[in-house]
C-alpha cells in the first residue's frame, strides 16, 4: 500500500505560484522540481480530490489547509484581466512587458467588442461574429502568453489555459460532496471564477463551466448567486446585455460541440425556470428571446444529435408553457 501525499504538500507548491519569492525559495530547496509545472500540481490535486478518501477532501478544505481559497486565488490570478496583453481590440490594457506578474492571464478578451447591439432583425446579434467562427486551427482566444515570453518569470508555470481548465475540474470534484458544494456556494469569488471561465477557448471547458453553474442554480438560493456572477461579468467585461458573451459562443461556436450546446440549453432552462417569481421568469425569458434564442433553436431543429434535440425540445416546450402563463 503506497503512502498518500497529503494536501499540504500540493497546496504549499500551488501557493508558491502566488508569490514569486516563495516560488524561488521552493525551487532552491528543490521542493519544486525544475520540470514540475503548475499544471502538473493542479492535476495531482484534481486526481486526489476525485480518488482519495473523503477525509482527504475534508482535510484539503479545512481551515488549516484552506485549499479552496488557495485554488480560487490561483484561478483568479490566471484570469485577471489586468494581466492581459495590450491588443488592437483594447489598447488601454497593460502590455506584457510592463506587467510585473507571474502570468499575463489565460484569456485574450477584446473588452466590450465581442458582442454588440444589432437590432436589424429585432434581436441582439454580434458585431464580430467571425471572431467566434475561426477555423479549427486557430483559437477563440489568443493566449496572452504568446505575445511575450518575458511575461512569465518562472518556467515552472504551465499554460494558463491548461491551468484554468484543471482548476475548473478541481471545482467540480470539490462540489461532488455536500460540504465542498456548500463551501463553493458560499464563496462568491469561487462562483465568479467559474463563470468567468466561459472565456476559455476550449468548448469542453465551457461545457463544464455551464454544467457547474446550472448545478449551483438549482440549489435553494443558487439562482441569485449565479445571476450576481453574470451581473458582475457584465460590468467587468462591458457587455451591452447580460448573458450575451455566453450566448455568443452558443450561437456561433467554432464547431458543433454537442456537450457544450446541450449544456447551454439546459443552463438557459434552469436560469429561466428555477425562480418562483413568474414576473422575473418572464423577464429572464425575454432577455434570451432578445438575444435570439427562439430563432437559434428553430435553426437547429434539423441537427442530428439526439442528445441535443432532447434538450432543445425541453426548452421549446417549457418556453411555450411560460408564455401561456403570461397570457392567462
Per-chain topology:
Layout: H1 7-16, H2 20-28, H3 38-51, H4 54-61, H5 67-79, H6 160-174, H7 178-185, H8 188-196, H9 203-217, H10 222-236, H11 244-251, H12 258-273, H13 278-291, H14 293-299, H15 306-327
Helix pairs in contact: 1-3, 1-5, 3-6, 5-6, 5-8, 6-9, 8-10, 9-10, 9-12, 12-13, 12-15, 13-15
Features:
56% helix, mainly alpha, elongated, 15 helices, 328 residues, 2 domains, Leucine-rich Repeat Variant
CATH topology of the largest domain: Leucine-rich Repeat Variant
Q: Quick check: average pLDDT?
A: 76
- Rg (CA only): 21 Å
Range of helix content = 55-70%
CATH superfamily descriptor of the largest domain: Leucine-rich Repeat Variant
InterPro entries: ARM-like, ARM-type_fold, FH3_dom, FMNL_animal, GBD/FH3_dom, GTPase-bd
Organism: Steinernema glaseri
Domain GBD/FH3: 1-328
Protein name: GBD/FH3 domain-containing protein
What can you see in these coordinates?
It is a single chain. This protein is 56% helix and 0% strand. It contains 15 helices and no strands.
Amino acid at each position: 500500500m503506497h503512502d498518500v501525499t497529503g494536501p499540504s504538500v500540493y497546496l504549499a507548491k500551488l501557493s508558491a505560484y502566488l508569490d514569486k519569492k516563495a516560488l524561488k525559495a521552493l525551487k532552491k530547496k528543490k521542493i519544486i522540481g525544475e520540470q514540475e509545472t503548475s499544471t502538473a500540481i493542479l492535476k495531482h490535486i484534481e486526481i486526489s480530490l476525485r480518488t482519495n478518501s473523503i477525509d482527504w477532501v475534508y482535510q484539503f478544505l479545512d481551515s488549516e489547509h484552506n485549499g479552496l481559497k488557495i485554488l480560487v486565488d490561483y484561478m483568479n490570478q490566471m484570469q485577471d484581466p489586468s494581466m492581459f496583453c495590450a491588443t488592437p481590440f483594447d489598447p488601454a490594457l497593460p502590455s506584457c512587458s510592463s506587467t510585473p506578474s507571474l502570468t499575463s492571464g489565460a484569456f485574450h478578451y477584446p473588452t466590450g467588442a465581442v458582442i454588440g447591439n444589432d437590432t436589424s432583425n429585432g434581436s441582439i446579434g454580434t458585431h464580430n461574429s467571425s471572431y467566434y467562427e475561426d477555423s479549427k486551427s486557430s483559437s477563440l482566444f489568443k493566449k496572452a502568453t504568446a505575445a511575450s515570453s518575458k511575461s512569465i518569470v518562472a518556467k515552472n508555470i504551465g499554460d494558463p489555459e491548461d491551468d484554468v481548465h484543471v482548476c475548473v475540474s478541481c471545482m467540480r470534484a470539490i462540489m461532488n460532496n455536500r460540504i465542498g458544494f456548500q463551501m463553493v456556494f458560499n464563496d462568491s469569488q469561487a462562483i465568479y471564477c467559474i463563470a468567468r471561465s466561459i472565456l476559455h477557448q476550449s468548448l469542453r471547458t465551457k461545457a463544464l463551466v455551464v454544467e457547474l453553474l446550472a448545478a449551483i442554480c438549482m440549489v435553494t438560493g443558487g439562482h441569485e448567486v449565479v445571476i450576481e456572477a453574470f451581473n458582475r461579468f457584465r460590468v467587468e467585461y462591458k457587455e451591452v446585455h447580460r448573458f450575451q458573451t455566453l450566448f455568443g459562443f452558443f450561437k456561433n461556436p467554432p464547431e458543433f460541440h454537442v456537450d457544450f450546446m446541450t449544456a447551454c440549453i439546459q443552463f438557459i432552462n434552469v436560469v429561466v425556470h428555477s425562480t418562483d417569481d413568474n414576473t422575473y421568469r418572464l423577464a429572464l425569458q425575454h432577455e434570451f428571446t432578445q438575444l435570439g434564442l427562439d430563432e437559434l433553436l428553430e435553426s437547429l431543429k434539423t441537427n442530428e444529435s439526439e442528445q441535443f434535440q432532447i434538450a432543445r425540445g425541453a426548452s421549446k416546450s417549457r418556453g411555450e408553457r411560460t408564455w401561456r402563463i403570461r397570457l392567462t
